[in-house]
């Protein structure tokens, strides 16, 4: 079994990489009308893709697995990954295919979003020996349900070699096929909507407990401005208070940035501070040995990043500096 000194990648992600186009408006149209745009911009997008960009910004070594088109959008997607130092060697570029685009209307007064998505026409990536080697070399495999066949193959390898499987369960993304995927993941942090559908309860503390009982070592439920709930590997509960902001410009990427910041901090606080006795433990065993203080600090860091990220347009461009996050939280680097 692999040991962590041999790992040279912190997070491998499997998901959709998109271009997000933002249009800030005064109000959502309810019928036929003409409305002047307040502002417009573009940013890299996709839940897993953005999580990796965030994790890289805060020091993690990341690799993205996906397939995109060779169009102008695809080139923008690759350029944005390069900006955040996300390795794109495992992204397949398909000739003649269109890359994914999301057009997002943002209501200026509240930061609420309405999303219109154009799915990529690129063929879903096949599982290759190169992917197997990446997963064997990684601390964490981060997924959200995209590229199901590839994802299942990757999860099987991760379990064999002790790589942690982290699941982002986004709102409106739960279906029955995700039940087993959720149960097979070690870190399960999901949105309220996903948690309610998966567990059958609207009590988020109870939902966290159910997620943990069904196999997650770290179970978490995020509830936007209301904060987040966790159950740690030893079964203890934790409520992470939100970092409330006076105004919210745009909530795009708040959940994705939470995941990326959580995983980056987890790698820093846990995997890179192992003592000699822990060097031969696999990822699951290391999670079981995490202390509460470290894990609480991981959640606090992620909560602060997500909150500060709502202060600008897009999921990546408004990301706060490490210094700003540490100043807000009182944590040490």
Report on the structure:
- It is a single chain.
- With 333 residues, the chain is of the alpha/beta class.
- The chain contains eleven helices and 13 strands.
- The chain has helices at residues 47-57, 72-83, 129-136, 148-161, 177-183, 192-199, 204-213, 254-269, 283-288, 292-308, 322-329; strands spanning 9-14, 18-25, 39-45, 62-69, 91-94, 100-107, 113-118, 138-143, 164-169, 187-191, 218-222, 228-231, 237-240.
- The strands form two sheets. A nine-stranded mixed sheet has the order 5-4-1-8-9-10-11-12-13, sandwiched between helices.
- Helix 4 (148-161) links the parallel strand 8 (138-143) and strand 9.
- Helix 3 packs across helix 4.
- The longest helix has 17 residues, at 292-308.
- It starts with 8 loop residues before the first strand and ends with a helix.
- The model is unreliable at 1-5 (pLDDT under 50).
List the helices and strands and how they pair.
Elements: E1 9-14, E2 18-25, E3 39-45, H1 47-57, E4 62-69, H2 72-83, E5 91-94, E6 100-107, E7 113-118, H3 129-136, E8 138-143, H4 148-161, E9 164-169, H5 177-183, E10 187-191, H6 192-199, H7 204-213, E11 218-222, E12 228-231, E13 237-240, H8 254-269, H9 283-288, H10 292-308, H11 322-329
Parallel strand pairs: 1-4, 1-8, 2-6, 4-5, 8-9, 9-10, 10-11
Antiparallel strand pairs: 2-3, 6-7, 11-12, 12-13
Helix pairs in contact: 1-8, 3-4, 6-7, 8-10, 10-11
């Amino acid at each position: 079994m692999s040991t962590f000194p041999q790992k040279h990648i912190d997070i491998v992600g499997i998901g959709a990489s998109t271009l997000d186009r933002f249009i800030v408006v005064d109000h959502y149209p309810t019928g036929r009308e003409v409305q002047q745009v307040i502002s417009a911009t573009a940013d890299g997008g996709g839940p897993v893709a953005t999580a990796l960009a965030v994790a890289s910004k805060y020091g993690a070594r990341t690799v993205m697995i996906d397939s995109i088109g060779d169009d102008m959008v695809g080139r923008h997607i690759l350029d944005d990954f390069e900006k955040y130092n996300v390795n794109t060697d495992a992204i397949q570029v398909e000739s003649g295919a269109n890359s994914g685009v999301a057009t997002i209307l943002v209501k200026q007064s509240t930061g609420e979003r309405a999303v219109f998505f154009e799915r990529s026409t690129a063929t879903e990536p096949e599982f290759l020996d190169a992917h197997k080697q990446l997963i064997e070399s990684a601390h964490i495999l981060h997924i959200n349900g995209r590229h199901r066949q590839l994802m299942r193959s990757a999860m099987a390898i991760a379990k064999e070699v002790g790589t942690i499987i982290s699941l982002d369960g986004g709102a409106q993304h739960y279906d029955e096929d995700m039940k087993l995927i959720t149960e097979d993941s070690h870190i399960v942090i999901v949105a309220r909507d996903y948690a309610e559908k998966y567990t059958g309860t609207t009590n988020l503390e109870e939902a966290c407990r159910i997620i943990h009982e069904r196999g997650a070592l770290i179970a978490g439920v995020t509830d936007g401005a209301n904060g987040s709930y966790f159950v740690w590997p030893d079964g203890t509960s934790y409520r992470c208070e939100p970092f409330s902001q006076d105004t919210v410009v745009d909530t795009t990427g708040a959940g994705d940035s939470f995941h990326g910041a959580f995983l980056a901090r987890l790698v820093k606080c846990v995997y890179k501070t192992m003592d000699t006795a822990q060097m031969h433990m696999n990822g699951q065993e290391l999670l079981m040995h995490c202390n509460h203080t470290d894990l609480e600090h991981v959640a606090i860091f992620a909560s602060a990043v997500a909150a500060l990220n709502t202060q600008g347009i897009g999921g990546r461009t408004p990301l706060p500096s490490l210094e700003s996050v540490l100043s807000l939280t009182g944590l040490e680097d």
